[in-house]
Design a protein that fits this description.
- Strand 8 and strand 9 form a beta hairpin.
- About 35% of the residues lie in helices and about 20% in strands.
- It has 2 domains: about 80 residues, GMP Synthetase, Chain A, domain 3, CATH 3.30.300.130; about 250 residues, 3-Layer(aba) Sandwich (Rossmann fold), CATH 3.40.50.300.
- The chain has about 375 residues and is of the alpha/beta class.
- It starts with a helix and ends in a 13-residue tail after the last helix.
Length: about 375
């Protein structure tokens, strides 16, 4: 008895992808389904990097399809393909970069740069080609976070293009590579914005699936200019549960919404402290703030991370958590967060999402 196609499709539908919040068939991930004399061949193409998930998805689908009456053997092939998501307004995508993810915070000191670094590493750990741009001109930190020796300078090609410096498999570019620690940048806003656009466009990013931009903290002129001129696919807002941080985080979300950049979700840092001696947990900066912002703007809480000395020590040492301890519980939070971000970008691409253009008029 040859199994019916409808029965096999029903078995595939019974598996719910945790990042697409849908089954693979209705999500448009089923590329082909062949049924021949009891032999079933399934090819699935996910729209987000899934190196660490493929084996589990294959096992789950195989187990479900094998239960269909008439099925003798099952072959499941899982792959992924990363397409560019829509960008804001009428901006054109950058050459060599499929998707740009802006990581922002309303105020400093909430772990934005640490989040950006680990997000980039988590995307790469699942098979994506990733770069990171340190856009914090006044306080660049990516060089240290990625263990790049102070004084390292990028190679210049054709007298006008910078070659990004590779560290931990990530293409990294920062203003820190062009100035010294003893030469602080003392520029006004327009100069900073111009320098960042130039740094972004004059870096020869090589075939990136994702470019993570670590924005300066705040929601002022610099951030607005970047949000309007850089073709951003989506943004991530970082906060802590502290009331003051939450006020500024709301401003960050509203800024992106006003310029037509979708907010993919909120990351809550320093959510809880666990005593290393007794194991007692305490919410030092408040509780549930990230969830409240996510609910207010109908966006996702991508992850909630503890106040951890380990996270701080690892980035200070030039090897962020995802690279230093890839199998740790904290690295698992970052990888789960990265998959949610990538999946939401792919869903926007699938839905052909459009965003409004914004016209700013000075009164």
């Amino acid at each position: 008895m040859n199994p019916g196609r409808a029965d096999v499709e029903a078995a595939i539908r019974s598996y719910l992808d945790p990042y697409l919040n849908n089954n693979l068939l209705d999500a448009g991930c089923l590329e082909s389904l062949t049924i021949d004399s009891g032999h079933v061949d399934v090819r699935v193409v996910l729209g987000y990097p899934a190196k660490g998930l493929c084996e589990g998805v294959v096992q789950a689908l195989t187990s479900k399809i094998e239960k269909v009456v008439g099925v003798q053997t099952v072959n499941v092939d899982i792959r992924w393909r990363i397409d560019p998501a829509p960008v804001q307004g009428e901006l054109e995508a950058m050459a060599g970069v499929r998707n740009i993810i802006a990581v922002a915070s309303g105020k400093g000191g909430v772990g934005k740069s640490t989040t950006a670094a680990n997000l980039a590493l988590a995307l790469a750990a699942d098979g994506a080609r990733v770069g990171i741009l340190d856009a914090d001109i006044y306080g660049p930190s990516m060089g240290q976070m990625f263990g790049i020796v102070d004084g390292t300078r990028p190679e210049v090609k054709n007298d006008q293009f910078f070659m990004p410096i590779e560290a931990h498999g990530i293409q990294v570019m920062s203003m820190a590579f062009l100035v010294t620690e003893d030469t602080p940048v003392v520029w006004r806003g327009p100069m900073v914005s111009g320098a960042l656009i130039q740094l972004l466009t004059q870096t020869l990013w090589h075939d990136l699936d994702y470019l993570v931009i670590d924005l300066p903290p705040g929601t002022g002129d610099i951030q607005l200019t970047l949000a309007q001129k850089v073709p951003v696919s989506g943004s991530v807002v970082v906060t802590t549960p502290q009331d003051l941080a939450l006020i500024d985080a709301r401003k960050g979300v509203e800024m992106f919404l006003k310029v037509g950049v979708p907010v993919l979700g909120v990351v809550e840092n320093m959510a809880v402290h666990v005593c290393s001696n007794c194991g007692h947990s305490e919410h030092l900066f408040g509780e549930g703030g990230g969830s409240r912002i996510a609910a207010q703007f109908n966006i996702d809480l991508l992850g909630s991370l503890p106040l951890s000395m380990m996270i701080r020590e690892q980035v200070d040492g030039g090897v962020p958590t995802v690279a230093c301890e890839p199998h740790s519980p904290i690295a698992a939070i970052y990888r789960n967060m990265a998959r949610h971000v990538a999946a939401r970008l792919w869903l926007r691409q699938q839905q052909g999402a459009t965003v409004p253009s914004l016209s700013i008029v000075d009164d």
